[in-house]
Amino acid sequence: MTWWRRICEAFLDDISRNGLLIEVPSGGYSFVHLTFQEYLAARHVSVSPGLVTSLADSVGDPWWQETILLYAAAGDASPIVRACLDSGTIPALTLAFDCSEASTEIDPDLRQRLDLERRRAFEPDCSAEHRRLIAGVTASRLTRQTLTTAAGTRICTSPVPAELYWLFLADTQAPRPDSPCDPHSGQPATGTWGAEAQAFVRWLNSI
What's the count of helices (H) and strands (E) in the chain, helices before strands? Predict the structure, then answer.
């Protein structure tokens, strides 16, 4: 036991000096960067399939988001995507689309269901509730790509896509921009007047 304890103490001392762990005032250890903890948790789930249910049950908890994405990149995220679809909230559906991009092992039927959820928002008979849900998902994924100015303001590095602006037009009946706004073009929204740009931001904040 003494021999084993010396090995453990030497290991803890080594990884502490290497900056992986730090000793906390209580006498225990903590990861310097949360990413290490999230990665190890994801790896643990990947070799313990029964724990995937725990991740699926946590799709609404932001604390588990990065762990779920790390797991999805290396495992079958089908149970997680299914739980996200069943939840039907903006954060959960955003996570579902992220997992779909990260994972190669998702059930094809779930991928199709995700695609249908998105495409339904652009159909004439779509409910305002579902349209705003997909708008929230699109905006959530878009606004993660930001740069911070010296003044602390965050600026999105990507332009507003036409699909998001089209959802705004459909939801509010705002005046159309001078340029065509095709939600399936994959292009940014252009031709917007200042007053409509401000109305768009107010609408986005309400979502």
Answer: 10, 4
